[in-house]
Amino acid sequence: MIKINNLHKSFDQLQVLKGMDLEIEKGKVVVVIGPSGSGKTTFLRCLNVLETPTSGRVEIDGQSLDFNERVTKKNVTSFRRLTGMVFQSYNLFPHMTALENVMEGPVMVKGMSKSEARAKAESLLKKVGLGDKVDDYPFQLSGGQQQRVGIARAMAMEPKVMLFDEPTSALDPELVGEVLKTMKDLAQEGMTMVVVTHEMRFAKEVADEVIFMDGGVIVERGVPEQIFDAPKEERTRRFLNKIQ
Ligand code: ADP
């Protein structure tokens, strides 16, 4: 589903991604861990071209962008639709209800009829456990509920891959579980997911593969048992010792 070749990203003189290669199969859940500043967020943002990679090639579901050449805006726009992104901050439109937030993309971007978009949004909100909150505004919802609206909103665009950038970091501890549960449900439905998170329990329970990044490269990757219980690389061991 995803193929990444020699991905580089610099901000001026600062080299953040220093050549990443990765393939992710359809339906897999990949959790990306690593120290702060190692480039995890930048990596995710490059996957949906919120950041333009400096060089390298990214392919998702058969569509590719080669950043060694010039990419056109049109290609970027269609490529971006392949992924749905969930951010640390929920970024909901404050003046719209939960339902309207989820309907917005399908109506405005995809040109879906309002009635169809409404039915879809209702069913997605029900799926994330918010069937009784469709008419609430963001300020009436808890952080966990807002984040679940965020997930429903991303899903409404029918992405091939869901990208999660520390989706539970801004939440009070008692609200983390409900968001992780929603993500787990998505994973069980076969969604391909790339998740940057500090939630090691989620990684252990849900990830098919864990990637440890440091200094803009993939230091080590493997199934959760291998990475957490028997890491091969010293850098991985040191990181895990610090956080566990
Ligand atoms: P992580 O998610 O692993 O904490 P980030 O990808 O957020 O790491 O950041 C990696 C490095 O890139 C950091 O040094 C950060 O300051 C830098 N960086 C990220 N975004 C920008 C930007 N838009 N402009 C300049 N530097 C950036």
From TrEMBL:
First-level EC class: hydrolase
SUPFAM superfamilies: P-loop containing nucleoside triphosphate hydrolases
Database matches in InterPro entries: AAA+_ATPase, ABC_ATPase_HisP-typ, ABC_transporter-like_ATP-bd, ABC_transporter-like_CS, MetN_ABC_transporter-like, P-loop_NTPase
Keywords of the record: ATP-binding, Cell membrane, Hydrolase, Membrane, Nucleotide-binding, Transport
Keyword Chaperone: no
Any Pfam family the entry gives: ABC_tran
Cellular location(s): Cell membrane
Main location: membrane
UniProt GO MF annotations: ATP binding; hydrolase activity
Superkingdom, taxonomy of origin: Bacteria
EC assignment: 3.6.3.-
SMART domains (alphabetical): AAA
Span of the signal peptide: none
Membrane topology, from the record: Peripheral membrane protein
Domain ABC transporter: 2-240
Keyword Protein biosynthesis set for record: no
Name of the protein in question: Cystine transport system ATP-binding protein
Organism of provenance: Priestia iocasae
